[in-house]
Amino acid sequence: MNAPTEMNCLAYRRAKLADPQRISAEARAHEAGCDACRLFARRVDAQEARIARVLDVPVPEGLDERILLAVSGRRQMPWRAWAMAASVVLSIGLGVSVWQGHGRYDAPRFAIEHVMHEPESFTTARLADPDQFRAVLAHFGGELTHSLGHVRYMKLCPGPEGTGWHVVLDTDKGMVSLFLIPGDKVHVPQTGTMQGYRALAEPAGRGHIAIVAENDAAVAAMAAAVRDNVRWKI
What we know:
Layout (H helix, E strand, L loop, with lengths): L8 H10 L6 H9 L1 H21 L7 H9 L7 H13 L15 H11 L12 H10 L2 E3 L5 E9 L4 E9 L2 E9 L7 E5 L2 E8 L2 E7 L2 H14 E3 L2
Antiparallel strand pairs: 1-8, 2-3, 3-4, 4-7, 5-6, 6-7
Helix pairs in contact: 1-3, 2-3, 4-5
């Protein structure tokens, strides 16, 4: 029987790069007897440690949205580029909510489910800046002429056809969630009720808006405020 062929340096380095922490016994034997490959291994392990330290740094809350809002200050930035940037940010997993698919798109239901899956939106102050809200509306195709209420919370959220925004406003009717959702899914007003929440979705801007509150009066008041105080440019 022929003796097994010893691993050469090229095979060792391929194995080390493929899975630095789990190399075979044969590879470890080669490393023990090869000064050049031991040095190579130390460099790979050091690089792996640096990557681990970088990934272990916590990401500041709202960093994804702040990046996009900073970019939004450039007036020439088109909506398509804004949406693409948002998609890139979301793709690296910076804490976004998930919209569950149920076949046919039911805009009021999806908005209510999103509110139910994000209860912190009513108790947490997040990007609560009226100027940033104006910037978000502008990129969605709306010009805010008068206040809709006190902005308490804003967060990027994936929708059925792209990245939208979940905004919570404090109004004289109570707290109301306003979603700005891009795409072409809603063509006529739709209403829905679920788990004590009321919702209205209607075409607006570069897609549709959805309004969610715990009573019909708050939904109706926000819908009227949007119609009176937002000038849609498209």
